[in-house]
Amino acid sequence: MKQVDQLLHARWIVTVNEHNDLFEYHTLVVDQSKIIDILPTELAKQSYRAHQVDDLGEQLLMPGLINAHTHLAMNLLRGFADDLPLMEWLEQQIWPAEGRWVDEQFVADGSELAMAELIRSGTTCFNDMYFFPEITAQVAQKAGLRASIGLMMIDFPTAWGSGPEEYLQKGLALQQKYQDHPLIRTAFAPHATYTVSDVPLLQLKQAAQQHNSAIHIHLHETAGEIALHEKQHGCRPLARLDKLGMLNANLQAVHMTQLSDEEIQQLADNGVQVIHCPESNLKLASGFAPIARLLAAGVNVALGTDGAASNNDLDLFAEMRTAALLAKGVAGDASVVPTTTALRMATINGAKALGIADQTGSLEVGKAADVIAIDLNTIETQPLYDPVSQLVYASSRNQITHLWVAGKQLLKERQLTTLDETQIIKKAQLWQKKIGGQ
Amino acid sequence: MKQVDQLLHARWIVTVNEHNDLFEYHTLVVDQSKIIDILPTELAKQSYRAHQVDDLGEQLLMPGLINAHTHLAMNLLRGFADDLPLMEWLEQQIWPAEGRWVDEQFVADGSELAMAELIRSGTTCFNDMYFFPEITAQVAQKAGLRASIGLMMIDFPTAWGSGPEEYLQKGLALQQKYQDHPLIRTAFAPHATYTVSDVPLLQLKQAAQQHNSAIHIHLHETAGEIALHEKQHGCRPLARLDKLGMLNANLQAVHMTQLSDEEIQQLADNGVQVIHCPESNLKLASGFAPIARLLAAGVNVALGTDGAASNNDLDLFAEMRTAALLAKGVAGDASVVPTTTALRMATINGAKALGIADQTGSLEVGKAADVIAIDLNTIETQPLYDPVSQLVYASSRNQITHLWVAGKQLLKERQLTTLDETQIIKKAQLWQKKIGGQ
C-alpha cells in the first residue's frame, strides 16, 4: 500500500488524453499536487492509502476548463452597456467608464468577482488581459487559480501608466516576479494592432523571445478593424505581424473572425494559437470565426469567454456548447466540432495555446491535479448514453460540485473555499451603486 | 382590506406588458388563479390580506417562459445521436429508434422527464408535437403545466396509428376532449410539407377553421427540404401552403431558416406565426433564420427549443440568449434583438403564436398567474445595472426558485411539487439501459 495525498473515486473519468479515453469506475490518484495514477477503483483501494479519500459516487471527473481570453476586472461592467457594435461600445461606453473608474481597487474587486465565477463554473485556469495586472496576479494567488497574466500594452495613457514605456517597465518587473511561480505565469499583451505601434510591438517581441513568453493580442476581430488597419498601415493586421516577425507558436491570436484561406494556411504553417470567443463575437456582431476550416488546417483552437461586458458571463461550459453549435451552423455541416473536439477546445487546446500542456489540460499521469467533478445525475442530463455529449450539449455550470487546482480544493459541494462569496457580492453591489449612479 | 389568495412581494417585477414596465418593490396580487393587481408593496400590505404571502426579498418575478416548439418525449433520446445533419440524423438514427421504442410508456416517461426539466428551467407553457398526444396531455395535467398539444399527422404508419385517416380520427377526439380545459388546448400538427400530402393538409385546414385551432408545422427547416419539395411538388413549401389557403395567423411555422424577402413579406401580410429554434438549427446545421428581417417586417417570432435529441436541452433561458446573440451575428448588427425583444420572444410572443396572449405571456391584470421567481443575487448576475440584461445574457436556469401556473405552485425552492424527481430519473435510466443496450 503506497501512501498518497488523495484518492478520487468516480463513476466516470473523462481524460481528454491523446485517445480521449473515458474510464468507468476508476480512481484518480493525487500526490504532491500531481496526478500519479489513474486505475480501476477496486485496484486503487488495494494499492493506495490516502490522507483524503473522496468517493464521488456517480459523478464524473474531467480536467478543469481553461478560459483562454478574459478581462476579469470587467465583471464590474457586466450588463453596463449591451446591444452595441464593437467600436461604439468601446469608444462611447466602455473606454469612458474605464477612464473614470478603473483603479487598483476596481481591478481587485472585479477580478475577485470574476474568479469566484470562474471557479463556480468549472474553470481552473485563465488567460487575462487588463490594466493593473499585478493586482489580478495577487487575486489569482489568493483564489488559488492557475493563470497567465497579460502584461498590457497600448499606445495611449491609462490609469495604469503614462504610455508604452511605462507599461513595458511594469510588465517586465511583473514578468520577473512570477517567472518561477508554480501557478502564475505572465504573457505580453499588446491590446491590438490598431492600438499598438511597431516600436512597442517589437519591444514585446524581443522580451517574449528572451523570456520564452507568449504574446496575447486581439486580432482580426471585425471587418472594420481590418479596414482601419489597412488605412493606417497599408496592410491587414496579420500581414503586419508577419512583417514584424511575430507569427509563431507563442502568438495567441484572439477572435480571428476575418480570415482568407491563405491566412488560415499562414496560421497553420507558423503554429499560431487561435483563441475563439464565439459569444462575444456574436454579441458584438463581429463576424464568424471559421473554426471548422481552422481545425481542418491543423490550427490549435482554444476557447475564451472574453470579458463579462461583452458576453455577459464567464461560463466556459456554455461557451463550449456555443462553439460546437455555431461551428456547425457556420460550416453548414453538422459533423464539424463534434463533442470530443469541443471538449478538447475547452481544455487541452487551451493548455497548448498557453504553452502549459505539459502541466495541465488533461487528466494524465504527471500533470497537475487540475480537476473538476460534475453531477450528471440530474433531470437535465438524463438519460446518459454518452457522458461527453452531456458535458458539451446538456449540462450547465451549476452541476459542478468540486474543483481542484494542483490538488488544492477551491470548490467543495459548490461552496468556495478560498474566496468569500457574500463579501464579493457586497463589493459588486457597492460598485454598481457608484458606477450606475444609483 | 380585500381578501385574496396570494401576495407575492418582490424587489423586481418584469411585466413584459406593452410598455415593458419594470417595477421595483412591488407586489403581484393573485386571486382565483389570476393576477388581479400589481402595486407597490407598501400599498399592497395596506390593501390586501391573503391566504398565502410570499416575501421574495431581492428576487425578481417575471412571466413564465413559453416554449413554442417541443417534442417532449424525445427527452429519452437526449444525446443518443449527435453531430449529424438533419436527414441523416432523422433517417438513420431517430426514425429507426422511434420505430423500435416509441409506445405509450415511452411517451409517458419521456414527457414526464421533459416536463420536470421545463419546470426547473422556468417554463410554464409548451407547444408539443409528438405521437400519442393523449399521453402527453395526461402528463401535462399531472404536472400542472399549460400546454398546446399537437395532434400529429404524417403520411406513413407509426406506432400511434395506421396513417392519416386514423391520425385525424384520434386527433379530432382529443380536440373535443380538451376543448374546454383551462390549461390544455390542442393544435393540429402536420409534421412537414415533405411528409404530409394535400388531402390530409386540407382536412386539417378545415378542422382548424371549424374549431378555431392552430396548425403547427415544421417549415423551411433546411435548403435540402426545400429542394426535395420543389422536386415533389414543383414549388417551395410556403407557396404550396399558400395555394392550399393555409397562410394565416393560426399557422405556426417552425424553423423558417430559408426565406426570400418576398416570403418574409408574405408571412407578415398573412400574420403567420414564426417559431424560431436557434440551437436546433445550429446543431443540425439547418441554416440561419433571418430573425432581424422577420421582426423588422412585423412578423411575430416566438422561441422553441425543439426536442432534446437535437438541442440537447429544453432550457428556454439559454435559447433566449442564443436567439439574441445569433440574430446579431446573422444580421451583422449588434443592435438587433436587444434584451427586451429577446425576453418578449420567450414570453408574450410565444403566447401570441399559440393564440393565448389574452391568458398568459405577461404579468398583467386579468391574465393567469403564470409566474416565475429568479434569484439574481448570485456571483453570476452581479453587479446588476439592468435586470433584463441579466435575465437575457447572464442568468441561468438554476437561478429559478419558484414557478406557478394559474396560481398553482409547481416549483418551490427549486423542488418539484407535482412530479417526483427521483422516480423520473430512475425511469430515464431504465430507458437508457433498454435503448442504449447496456
Properties at a glance:
homodimer; 438 residues; alpha/beta; Urease, subunit C, domain 1; TIM Barrel; 9-stranded mixed β-sheet; 39% helix
Summarize the structure.
Chain A is α/β, with parallel strands linked by helices. Helix content of chain A is 39%, strand content 24%.
Could you describe the 3D structure shown?
2 copies of one chain form a homodimer. With 438 residues, the first copy, chain A, is an alpha/beta fold. Chain A has 2 domains: 2-63 and 367-416, Roll (Urease, subunit C, domain 1); 65-354, Metal-dependent hydrolases (TIM Barrel). Helix content of chain A is 39%, strand content 24%. The first copy, chain A, contains 16 helices and 17 strands. In chain A, strands 1, 2, 3, 4, 5, 14, 15, 16 and 17 form a 9-stranded mixed β-sheet that branches. In chain A, strand 9 (184-190), helix 6 and strand 10 (214-219) form a beta-alpha-beta unit. In chain A, helix 13 (339-346) packs across helix 15 (387-394). The first copy, chain A, is globular and about 65 Å long. The N and C termini of chain A lie far apart (62 Å).
